[in-house]
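Entry type: protein chain
Record version: 2
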Amino acid sequence: MKLDNNTQALTESAIVTALMVVFALVGIYFLGIIIILYPIPFIVLGLRHGTRYNILSLIMSSLVVGILINIMLGIFLFIFFGFMSISLSYMIKRKYRHSHTLIFTTFILLLSTLIAIAMFNYIAGISFISELENFINQARNISYESITNMELSVYQLEQMKQMVKLMYELLILLIPFTIITTSLFIAYINFWLSIFILRRLGNKSTEVPKFKRLRLPSNIILGTLVLIGGALLIRYLEIFYYETLLINIIFLLILVFFLQGLAVLAFFIDKLRINKVFKIIIILLVMINLFLIIIIVLVGVLDTLFDFRKIRKVNIP
């Protein structure tokens, strides 16, 4: 029986490896965005047969991609997605709380991204962040040229240029926030889809994470105060780029409390049994209205304090 199980696991590992090599090639050459889904089959494989098969298949797939295209690309592929895939497989299998799994996996993916950037800087001999800043500055110059060609008064032209300048400067300042947000998004997509597929394959013991049940750690308020206090201390001591640090912390906190507030909204919409189409419309309207975004952020903060949904008293993953 054990031999049969091992044979099945090895067979599935070989199939997943072959399929994901093709998937990676399609993602690299034709449809780049789909590459963020690359870890999912490995995670499912690890959940079905054990983490070692996840690691084995990941290594083989990355190695083949490296041989076919470029060995450094294969290494980058493994570094960027491998550790996240392994951590998700391990934590889901051991039924860690969903919020803890997502936070830890986001941290792992962020760390993997930083390692990949450091390797890129070392191998290419150029700074990835500097190149990104140059790209943003080029986009700003193109925007300036477009504005200049518009029929505007001198005053209007200067106002538009100042607005564009501030917008692109903010984009550069928010590069760390963008990397963190992207890591969170990729981690969540892989987390949700892996469990969804696993249940479709017949494993009903793992619950698909529901967004309406999303809740931040109970000590998030204390953590928020510590982060802001630390940033202000850095400003007082005039240590490195405190403005950049403070802006990224503020945007990150707004994001996490907005997500919690949105989860509260989704929870009570479901309680009221509102039609799914109207539910989507309501959530979209909230996401594009600045005033409603502020309200939802406040709801997220208050829910952390008062637990409007009363889900802390229930044993929810």
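Comment: The first helix runs from residue 2 to 29.
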